[in-house]
Amino acid sequence: MFFSAKKLTGGYGGANIIEDCYFEVERGEIVSILGPNGAGKSTAMKAMLGILNNSTGDVFLEGKNINKMKPQDRIKSGISFVPQTNNIFTELTVRENLEMGAFLIEGDINDRLNEMFDLFPIIKEKSDQFAGELSGGQRQQVALARALMTDPKVLMLDEPTAGVSPVVMDEIFQHILNIKGKNIAVLMVEQNARQALDISDRGYILVTGRNAYEGSGEYLLNDNEIKRSFLGG
Hints:
Strand content: 25-35%
Largest sheet: 6 strands, mixed
């Protein structure tokens, strides 16, 4: 498996939030981590990224155990992360945000900028505008593009559609599908479970910090118990 985590256990100093969690994602695949509030979804993602200090378990990238790597070294190895909040520099222009995301690129970044402008046409149109002036959906596109400037192998997304309208949510999910088409492994935490599963190759459902269900997006969408418990009918 291209990117995986095994036996993730940890929390924030008190009782563990996650216990023996495991996840896998291949390149060119979208995998969702779902579950009710407080299930440990974002905690698990922080553990995989190495920013959860009180955690144990193993994380593998291309067969290599990266568990002892610092977060910045995991990013250098090909993992990029978009947090739910504070994921852009509002006081900078759109272009400057993308330039900040290119900190690992040596030399000219214009080709990479143009790739992002092709992938997200609206941010090309808004490239000289301050990011703080953009709509929520446009800001999220800037955050995605900034994360992609390093040409990552794995893209981790924490609640990419939080706080946006249903129409904008559909647009963001379409962008995530386009990113998948670049042969990137996409692992996302998402509260809009039904819509996330609709675009996901596979999914994991956490309950009280443990893996409770897993399977293809289609299977999880159509399982009667899962529909009743997590998908609203």
